[in-house]
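@channel sequence for tomorrow's demo:
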Amino acid sequence: MPKKDLKSVVQLCVLTLLILFLCFIYSCKKSSTESSAETKEQNATKTPAATTDEMQEPSAQQEQVVEEQAVGEETSEEEVTEEPVAEEAETIPSPESPKLVPIEIDLPKPMFVGTPQDTRVPNLEKPLGKPRPPFLAPVGTTNVAFEKPVSGSDEEPIIGEIEYVTDGDKEAADGSFVELGPFVQYVTIDLEQTCEIYAIVIWHYHKQPRVYYDIVVQVSDDSDFISNVKTVFNNDIDNSAGMGVGKKMHYTETAEGKLIDCLSHGPVRGRYVRLYSNGNTSNDLNHYIEVEVYGKPIE
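structure tokens (generated this afternoon):
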């Protein structure tokens, strides 16, 4: 081979090697640059994510502290709420629950004479067979009907005086009762002021075990009993007295009298008390020994 040609081949090989070397260096730099960029991008992506998670999810210790604070706040609120309520309940009595005590009712001497009659009366309650239990009423309750004015449907009683109804004499002896005419009759007691009424006790005639018919007891602020009338007792089973059918039972007269519980009605407030009757199992006449009204004046 000529010397000139050999020199040209050598130069070509050197040039080729140089080009390959440059390409190799360029490739390595590019790969290194891309790897560094990826690493920076990953680091940039991971760091905020980790920071955000740490901000959003508190540690277990932080959660425990928050729970303890919440429990403390709830306990504090309950204590603040409960203490005033308990103190108020102890210092301020409820007006709807007054203290109740037994009221003293003086009873007359029993005076049944002879053999009791066979009183076959419909809807008749059975005798209790023992003394009536004490009646409980608010402290300060008295007989507000004692010696108060009385009027009646029979202006000229057959026996006695209408004032006997509130004179305090409950005995069944002669001179202790007033006898009104037959059919439906009534007596009206003027308490002379509006009262809160807790109980009414009636003695018609207890010298014999009689049953009086169509007993109706009403309370009102109206002396004519046209408005604001409250019926507290009615045993008129057929409306023969004209004031409606009553659901109460007939009863036999005794020295204890008949106690009508008015507390179950509210109690009842009024100035006038009216009592009806319509004869009895012995005759057609109407009798009253005494009527007591237990209550307190409304000031």
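heads up for whoever presents: DSSP finds two helices and twelve strands in the chain.
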